[in-house]
Amino acid sequence: MEQHESTTTGSAPEQVGLSFLTVAHGLRERVDQHMLAVAGLSLSRTKVLRALAGRGALHQAELAASLGQAPRSVTQIVEGLERLGLVARSGDPEDRRRKTVSLTDTGRASLAAAEQAGTHALRECFGALAPQQLATLDAVLEHLDSALAGGKTG
User: Fold this and answer.
1) What is the DSSP string of 96-146?
2) Residues in Cβ contact with 73 at an 8 Å cutoff, skipping those fewer than 6 apart
3) Could you tell me whether strands 58-59 and 95-103 are parallel, antiparallel, or unpaired per DSSP bridges?
């Protein structure tokens, strides 16, 4: 992974936070690019396929809600996935405006390839850390996640 240019000169929470955001953004881009290169799927498209694989066929509005995204954004992703044959959409006989989205066999295979590519990219990046560093990072991330879930920042 390319080393990011540090804008921090100390350990103040906001400086460390900005550094974390920079590294996290770079990591996300690296994983996304690797998944695109190897499996032809972005992280956002993979997330949609993963939701369908885990929950089964869903109405587009339910899919958007489960992903925490705007319905229009999910509709655009689903349309692209449908063009690639990775999902199928069918109409609701009771409401023509509602579409049910389901994963195709091709979609399942593409999802597996994308997840494998993502795992490879993450192992490549985090595999450079010593076991103790991984354990420390895991504990810090768990603490941050709990703080965010509780609405606290410190």
Assistant:
1) EEEEEEEE-HHHHHHHHHHHHHHHHHHHHHHTTS-HHHHHHHHHHHHHHHH
2) 64
3) antiparallel
Strand, coil or helix: what is 4? coil
Asked if 92 contacts 99 with a C-beta cutoff of 8 angstroms, the reply is yes
- Longest distance between any two alpha carbons in the chain, whole Å: 61
Across the range 7-24, mean pLDDT stands at 83
Model confidence pLDDT, tens digit, residues 62-84: 999 999 999 999 999 999 999 99
| Gap between the Cα atoms of 117 and 38, Å rounded | 6
User: Hey, how many other C-beta atoms are within 10 angstroms of the C-beta on 116?
Assistant: 13
Amino acid 9: pLDDT:
57
Sheet-wide strand order for 58-59: 58-59, 95-103, 87-92
